[in-house]
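Lab notebook, bench 4. Still working through the backlog of constructs that have no structural model yet. Next entry is a single chain of 635 residues. Request: give me the structure tokens for it.
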Amino acid sequence: MILLYSLVLFPLIPAILMFLIKEAAIRKCINIISSLSIIALSLAFSIAFFNRPQEINISGGAIRVGMMFIEAIMSLYIIFMGIKHKKLLAPLFSAVSTGLLLWFELTLTPETNSTLLIDRLSILMVLIIGVIGGLICAFSGDYMRSYHKHHEEYKDRSHVFFMTLYVFIFAMFGLVLSNDMLWMFFFWEITTLCSFLLIGYTRTEEATKNSFTALTINAGGGLCFAVGIVILWMKCGVIDIKDLLHLNSSIWMLAGVYLLGIAGLTKSAQLPFSKWLLGAMVAPTPTSAMLHSSTMVKAGVYLLIRIAPLLNANHVGITFVIVGGLTFLITALLAISQQDAKRVLAYSTLSNLGLIVACAGIGTAESIWAAIMLLIFHAIAKSLMFLTVGVTENILGSRDLEDMDGLFNVSGTLTMLFVIGIAGMFLAPFGMLISKWAAMKAFIDSGNMLIVVLVAFGSSATLFFWTKWMGKLLGSFSGAIKSEAHEISIGQKLPLFALAIMVVAVCLSYPLISTYIIIPYLENTAYVAPISPLSRLNNTLVITMMGVLFMLPLLLIPIYRRNRIQRTSVYLSGLNTGDNQSFYGSMGKIHLVEHKNWYLQKFFGEHVLLRDSTALLWVVLLAGFVVSAVSILTM
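Model written out:
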């Protein structure tokens, strides 16, 4: 129990210290020690409880009263900020959901069988949150100093930034370990408030607007969560997540699960709720990495994976399958049209989360196997990509893909990290591709051919935009960049290399992850005879793909040996001036060589797809709501 309390509560200590201490050198030491401690605690916790899954009941009215008090304080703060900035929808959602649950707890006093649940899935989430979150915190120390050096127009509020990061980790630990849905809701709302504070960090007009967009959408999801909890207790007598999975199917159960699922969709920023995550790009890059990889959006898909057994073969599950499948396809197409690297990563995140949501909607053992694998590989590779983009932006002063020509000449290390991150997202033998294969097979076995078509076309779009980016990095040695080689600080380099190693290591160990983590979880959940898709893979193919993985470093050797390569003059569109970067055109005029990607704005631009697709997804969700409402009214 000491290890459990230490894991969950420890992040609050650096949160308080980082907020109170303004001395940069002391804060740096606290940040390094704290981030390493969180990583160590998450590893120790996972080892200690790996073979000891258990349910824990932490009784005591004082804890529940304390949670209610904190919920009320958070709601009052949101109401105050909403009135101050004349944004009234978020305060309304927050006030109604908080008031509803305070009434619920004070009048009905629901009893829980167990407050916390430690199983293989929660242990996996602890590792993702602790290790990746800890690395992001460690990276943020040097990054924020560099950030404010390049953005002197923003007030340095790093003490608030770091406090919020550590509170975020505390809330996520509590969320993934909660079995009591009231506890889960408490931590859920803390993550909503933290995202609001992080997105609005710079306090510019755009940042404030986008932070309230995130707050409004997630507060709306929180209201759905609160109503779902009340329905499931009053009509089904269930307040625990684990007990919920053993309920017999009923209209009221499906209504409650539908509302929980909507909360999951808002948190994971699925269409039509994606606007808040796209707006989060105004925040410093560690915020994006934290939201996209180890916290916030992972809370949404985690909840959907938890309730997935209840979604199999009913209208609620079908609704989420359609939402996830369409989000996967549409956001992959939208990513093609983006030049801003962070927006490419944002749409890629939405796309991959859409595939996880679709897997949860299918609700079979095979689809959940694929969903958990997708979650793991996405968390690691995407955090590496976001942090690498952040360093690149500080160095180049831009995160435009077209400005990444010649990144070799600035930092071979960054180029290598980019290549590993991008490869981890779409190339064999990295796990995203294997997981997509498993998802496709699960969809085919379920007989849902619509989602098979959506995934096929979405995967083609994914191949297109990742290949464009990798080609920009590896295929262009000229371009506008004329900078001396740049050395990345050790405080940023170590987390980046750790994440790059994790991308490769998790790929090599995915059979072990499947055998010892995912399969035991499936066998102890409400599934029948789960079979690992891994067992269906052709062994020869797997060995061949692993061989390709070991060949990758050989392909990157030229990055570090570029000064030893003998360069020759190449033919351009005219007489080469001798530097392979410019040529003499007609009338002797010198032209710079330019390499431009296709972004197909005419076909896949936001102005073409986003509004209509958002409207389409609203129709899908309303259809699911109408079916549930009609079923209840005709009982």
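Notes after review: The first helix runs from residue 2 to 9. DSSP finds 25 helices and five strands in the chain. Flag for follow-up if needed.
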